[in-house]
Amino acid sequence: MGKTIAEKILSNHAGQDLKAGDFAVCNIDFCFGQDGTSGIIVDRFRALGIKEAFDRGKFAIVIDHSAPSPNMGVSAVHKKLRDFSREKGLLLYDVGCGVCHQVIPENGHVLPGDLVLGADSHTCTYGALGALSTGVGSTDLAISLACGKNWFKVPQSIKIVVHGKLGRGVYSKDLILHIIGDLKADGATYQSVEFYGSCIDALSMDARFTICNMGVEMGAKFSVIPADKKTLAWLSGRNKMRKPSPRYADKDAVYSLVKEYDASRIGPQLAKPHAVDNNAVVEELVGTHIDEAYLGTCTNGRLEDLEIAAGMLRGRRVSKNVRFIVAPASRNIYLQAMKKGLIGILVQAGASVVTPGCGPCVGTHNGVPSVGEVVVSTANRNFKGRMGNPESFIYLGSPATVVASAIEGCIADPRAYLK
What we know:
The protein has 419 residues and is α/β, with parallel strands linked by helices. Helices cover 32% and strands 19% of the residues.
């Protein structure tokens, strides 16, 4: 019987032949925490009585969720993390470096075939590189920091095949919102989702990160796009210490579910408050008043997303009734966007560009909405309180939909602003 990608990678990291349903202890290639979770990692690591990390080069702390610090309490946590990193000689990506799910792959810490753990639920993002990656709790992460291992139950796998081409004004975010709306928030609980098809093959790496980032929003343990030439080209030069070891599913691999979609039949999508699977097409919501528009996050704060936004805003302005907040996903992306003139276009159009990080998405600072206010966002979650106020309303959409809505002051169809 053939194996899925998850069965192959976990077997390789356990040193034994595994199939779905088996339990095993596996070696970890990389692990990390962010400032919202790493304080507990530090405490649990010290409680174990371990003096040194299993490998100083295979763990990092990324200060991104409240960066720069919005208050004294957070500042104390940040100092604790900096002190721990210096004491143990560990990697630290400090304020301004960017969102962990951009910074980690951007700096070459993940390769095809790797097994990665992060103390953050959207660690599944790195499946875009053909890796198995998943979020765990801080205590589990502390264990991995101490010994370089963790336990896994080998998941069953779902195969998703997307045929055809995305239409004008339709992006990877629309595609994954459509799929989540179809499968629902628990449709892939503790399963590994593999993405295939001509549409997936045609996606840029930025777009593939968007797809895999939101796998957890349908309950997936892992979400994976098999590595191809695009993947290897994106990785070229990022890690000179190791070679990629991509794994591919066998033709006779067994899946719990196979779903097929026609990309050409999908239009701009939105997730309505207060659930990611509360799906709607843009035509249903056109004209809905908004107070804030947000472009950024680990889902859609990459260079391609900023290019889409700048292209739509060139020669236009954001509505005077809308606060338009932009957060590049990393310092590197910020710099690239500056060199291309994108930041100037966004600022001239009325955008407020903030430090690369997660602040507005998780509601720590840089754009917390008021009671009753409505936000349209490129983020991955729209639960009550997600952006810091449980009495606000969040719609999720693509960068193009967010920008069109910012221009009009209400939810708008992006196709009207695209050539």
